[in-house]
Amino acid sequence: MNLNPRTIIQLDLTLKPTTLMTPPKFPTLLATILLTATVHAEIAAAPAPFLPVPNPAQLRWHRAEYIMFAHFGMKTYYPSNDHLGDGNEDPKRFNPVKYDANQWVAAAKAGGFKGIVLTTKHHDGFCNWPTDTTNHSVKSSPWKNGGGDIVKELADACHKGDIYLGLYVSIIDKHFEKAGSPKHSAYGDFYFDQLKELSTRYGTIDEYWFDGFDSENLKMDYPKIGRMIAETQPEAVVYDSGVLVKTLPDRCLAWPNQHGGVSPDQNYRTEIDGVMRWYPNEPSIIFQGNWFHTGEPAVSTTQMQEEYLNSTGHGVTPLLNFAPNQDGLIDDDAVAKLTEFKAWVDRIHSNNLARLPGAKTTDTGHRGNNQNYAAAMATDANDETYFATDDNVTTAVIEVELAKVQQPAGFIIQEYIPLGQRVDGYTIECRVNGNWQKVFSGKKIGYKRIIHAGRSSAKDLKLPPCDAVRLRIDNSLACPLINNFQIIGTEP
Known about the structure:
Elements: E1 9-10, H1 26-36, E2 42-43, H2 56-64, E3 67-70, H3 101-110, E4 115-121, H4 150-161, E5 164-169, H5 174-179, H6 187-201, E6 207-209, H7 215-218, H8 222-232, E7 237-239, E8 252-253, E9 269-272, E10 275-278, E11 284-286, H9 301-309, E12 319-321, H10 332-350, E13 360-363, E14 387-388, E15 396-406, E16 408-415, E17 423-432, E18 435-442, E19 449-452, E20 466-476, E21 481-489
């Protein structure tokens, strides 16, 4: 019998006394045991996936939690409130004399980012790599006498620093609209060749980011682009702006129809051509500049926290934009704020009342009465364990008995999404003087839901001192799987 690694078989063998009276030969003894034993087998197999589920690229994106967006190019040297550019910018202005990709990676790590997405080409058409398709690129700049390559240096630094590398490649190109290309008459061919260069010259790419503005009017062969990505970078996730999801239906990310944070209760399940697909939103949020550096400092750490709660805290992985300056570096002020921001993120995740001495986690019933699926799996700080119910049970209660009366500041809830998104209604209650009080309710959980009293979407939430907290799963599309239920304590 082939069993899931989390399948448990419990055998209760009861032998009659006569079995051992006369020592038989081993085969006879074995036969006697098999014939006279009473066998009670309880099998608690892991739940089947509830389709759709994220593929490995999408799961890696979820677990990154937030990624640095780095807008850097010609508009860095033409700072204004217009971030688009017009294609007439002079490449001779581009000269990041102190450019240090390793400093970018160090800044990203200081902020807790698991990756960086770079604008390899923005709407003005200037290319941050020495492309063969046009002279409107770094090779026409004074930087390194035209011999530099922003993309290569960042790719090397990301691979060396073991962080995620993403490439933004603008679908719009204002320079091509005005000047064309000596080698290409059709923009679709021009763009395809640029994308193929990026896909084949710089090693592993973890994410492609396609700005969908005006994409339909360009009438490019998007299926051809998708097939090339599938061939050259088979493990990349793709923010596709709706133009590639039909070609790459198992690893795309969606445009949330706005920049900035997203609403709570994010749904990852979308029907595309009659098939339910995993298609989560990826928001992009400005933390500095007008996408590109304008000389203004990064926003305050308080604003960073609020935007984090409105994005990562709502179950998606945002791109948070920090703009390198004209020297080619992340500002020292931005690095200092990033360091403070990461310290705050770490604090709210490490301050867990459910894990203090004396706290106890119980439930109203777990899968097959197997402790591997008990409520304690939701408070053990292990990404690969989870609370689960039997297949036919779509409601549940996880209760955390605190060692004493405590003041919670909020909650973090996570589903075990490798097996799908399931929960469709939940309630959180606090026990005050022996009585349960409802304090919060929501619909979707997904990868991560952060509920922080007085912050972001929970601004009006006030939590009472209590001696117990419980999470009620009121409705689930399949048996619920809760990977994490954390009670955030107030900061000292």
